[in-house]
Amino acid sequence: METMVAAGTMTSVQETPGPDITFRSDMTVELIKHAASDADVIWAARVSTKGEQSLADVDADPARSAGLINFLMRDRHGTPFEHSSMTFYVQAPIFVFREFMRHRTFSYNEESGRYRQLDPVFYRPGPARKLVQTGKPGAYVFEDGTIEQHDIVSRTVEDSCRQSYAAYLSMLDAGVAREVARTVLPVGLFSSMYATCNARALMNFLSLRVKSEDATFPSFPQREIEMVAEQMESIWAELMPLTHAAFERNGRVCP
Question: Which domains does the chain show, CATH number per domain?
Fold first, then answer.
């Protein structure tokens, strides 16, 4: 860009480049560690009738006890499903985490904007995201948006996030503390956390955060947290296939 600084004189001025902003419409879920198998349910349940002899069932073949797992799920004997552990690493927008943390049976540790400069990664709804809410509170559905609506969402989100992150950096550059500068950042900013739970807590989460036609009690989760929950369920189904099958067979009701 050129600008006039004196009569008849031109000089070049370099525009200051803005920060590199990343926009995402997906979520990240990774299993970090686990101690979770269908056998955990079996030995935990059998201690009630076998006492110390239940120790022999720690390495039992869970497939031979699929009926027991289904019985426990059907009759809502929930505590045997608590003797497992899964730790997930999740990247998602802050507004997803605020919904997530309503589930107080999980343990959480989230990255902190007090102690590190937050990365410029923001959520932008993808083209498959339904945009229009139709109906009254408690009885509404979401419908596809028009091309024009998707366009204004994308443009507005991008412009707002770029402006807010530039304001965040300007305060940091001026020496303002990170915990103060972050106040301008939107809830669409991506954060990361570890979330640890047992199978019973996870079933409670899934019963509320995944919409399923097979559920005894229908749920209506926000799509973004459902995207996280779907990935968690897929991982859990591989770790504890008999428990997951019983969960589905019995209407996706947390025992």
Answer: 22-122+190-249 (3.30.1360.170)
